[in-house]
Amino acid sequence: MIFKSVGDDRPYPDHGLRRTRDWAEIPPRQVRLDELVTTKATLDLRSLLSEDSTFYGDLFAHVVQWRGVLYLEDGLHRALRAALQQRNLLHARVLEL
Q1: 16-45 pLDDT, tens per residue?
Q2: Strands 36-38 and 69-74
Q3: How far is residue 78's CA from residue 8's CA, in Å, rounded to a whole number?
Q4: Domain residue ranges of the chain, discontinuous segments joined by +
Q5: I need a labelling partner for 51 at 20 to 30 A (CA). Which of 17, 44, 77, 78 fits?
Q6: Are the C-beta atoms of 30 and 60 separated by less than 8 Å?
Q7: What percent of the chain has pLDDT over 70?
Q8: What CA–CA distances, in Å, run from 28 to 43, 61, 79, 95?
C-alpha cells in the first residue's frame, strides 16, 4: 500500500494558506508515504508525467496535520513519482493545525 488511506475531501478546517508564498514560510521535512491520507482520489496523468510539473509551483508537497493525521493537500503527483521510484519518503511542508 502506498498511502495510509485514499480520501476525496479535506476533513480539516480551512487554514487560510492559499498561495505558494504562504506555504513557503513552513520549512520542508520528510514524511513517510504510508502515513499520508490523500485529499484527492484522482490524478491527471499529464501532471504525473510532465517534466515541468513543479515549474510554476512549490517544489515540496503540502501536508496538513490535523488530529494526528497527515493529509496530503497538494503534491499527489510528487508522492506517486516517489512511490514509482521505490522511495517511501517525500519532502513536504507540514502545516500543523
Answers
A1: 998 888 999 999 999 999 999 999 888 767
A2: parallel
A3: 17
A4: 5-9+20-96
A5: 17
A6: no
A7: 85
A8: 23, 9, 14, 10
